[in-house]
Amino acid sequence: MEHSLFPTETKLKFYIERLIYGVVIAMPLQPMVGDVLLWLAIGIAFIDLVRRRNLSLPTGWLSWTVMLFVLWTGVSAALSDNAQWALTSWFYQIIAGGGIYYLVRTYISTPKQWRYFLQCVLGTAILVCFIGVYEYIFVPNQHINEWVDATQFPKLMRRMSSTLMNPNLLGAYLLMILSVSISYLLVYWKGLTNKILSKAYKKQIYMMIPVALILFVTLLLTYSRGIWISFGAMVIYWGIFVERRLLLSLLAVPIILYFYDGEIAARLWSIFQGHDTSADLRWALWDSTMYIVRENPIWGIGWNTFYLVYPDYNYYIQGPNVLMYHAHNLYLNMLAEIGIPGLISFITVLLGHVITSIRLQGDVFRKAASIGVGALAVGVLVSGLSDFELYSHQVTITFWLLMGWVGAFVKAQQKATIINHN
C-alpha cells in the first residue's frame, strides 16, 4: 500500500481540481490568497506530470499560441532596460496566467467539472457584487476625485469598485462574467422556445436571470463608459449570432437618455461630447505612447514597465511625480511593452479560441460556452480601445482561466476524436 505522504495520481488530480476552484473563488475576492492557491496547484501539477512521465511540449495549436505568447513576453522582459522589474512582472502575471490556463485546460476535463467551474465563477461574481453594494452604501469613497472629473460630473459622488479596488477594473471583471452568463441564458432560452431543449432547462434559466440582472446593475454602477460601450458591442454580437430581436433593445438607449436625467445619462452623453479631462488625457497619453512604440517596435520596453519609461515621453503633464501605469489602450500598451509580434500573438490567442470554439461539437452546454468566448473576445477587444484592464492581476487571471475553460472543451473533443478513430 502506498504511503499517505505520497498520494496516488487520482488523489493529486483531486487536490489540483479543488485548488483550481479555490483560485476561481479567491482571486476576485482576495488575490493574495488566490496566488497561494494558484502556485500550490501549479506545484502539485508539476509533481503529477513528473510521476506520470508526461513532461512534453504543448498539445494542439491553441496551447502553442498561449506558449508562444508567454515565451515572447518573457524574452521581451529579459531584453528590457528594466529587466529585473519586467521579469518579475512577467512571472507574476504572464507565467501565472499561462499556469491557470494550463491547469483549467488539463484538470477541468469532464462535463461535471465544467459545471462546477461555472458555478464557482458565477457564485463568486455575485459575492463580489454584494460586497460592492455594501461598500457603495456604507463605506466612504476615498478615491472619487481620482475616478471622476468633478467639474464635468458634479452629481456623480459614487462609483462601485468592490474587491477589484477600481471601478474600471470591476467593470472589466463583470464584463467577462456577463459574457458567459448571458450567453448561457440566451442559448438556453432560445433552445427552450424552439423546443430543442427539454423543460428541465427552465430551472437553469430561472437561476441565470437574477444572476445576469445583479451583474448588469453592478456594471452600471461602476459608471465606466468604456465598459458600457463594450457591453453594447456584446449585445450586437449576441443579436447577430443568437437572437436578432435582441438588437431592438439598443433602441431603448436613446429613449432612456432623452427622458432620464441622472448620473448614468450624464456619463453616456459625455461619450459624444468629449470635453472632460479623462478624454483629453487619453488622447495625449496615446500620442506619447506612439513615440515609445516607434522606438521599440519589435521587442518593446518589457512587460509592466510602462510607468517607468513613460515619464521620458510625457509632454502633456511634465512632472516626475506623475505616474501612468499603463497606456489606457490594450493595443498601444502591448505594442509599447511587448512589441508588434507580442500584440499579434495575443490577438492570435484570443481569436484562435473563438474560431476553434465555433467548431466545437457537443451538447448545448458547450454550444453556449462557444457563444460566451466570442462575447468575451468582443468585450476585451472593444474595451481595449479605451483602457488596459489586463494590467490588473485579478482581471488577467480571470481572463486566462476562462480561456482555459474553452481550451478544456477543445482538448476533450480532440481526445474523443482520437478514441473514435482508434
From TrEMBL:
Question: Encoded by which gene?
Answer: ictB
UniProt keywords (A-Z) are: Membrane, Transmembrane, Transmembrane helix
* InterPro entries the record matches: O-antigen_ligase-rel_domated (IPR007016), WaaL-like (IPR051533)
Major subcellular site: membrane
**Source organism of this protein record:** Veillonella tobetsuensis
- Transmembrane regions listed in the UniProt entry: 20-47, 59-79, 85-104, 116-137, 170-189, 205-223, 235-260, 330-352, 364-385, 391-410
The residues covered by the O-antigen ligase-related domain are 211-347
Give a yes or no for keyword Membrane in this entry: yes
Its membrane topology: Multi-pass membrane protein
Origin, by domain of life? Answer: Bacteria
Q: Which GO terms describe its cellular component?
A: membrane
Q: Where in the cell is it found?
A: Membrane
Q: What is this protein called?
A: Putative bicarbonate transporter, IctB family protein
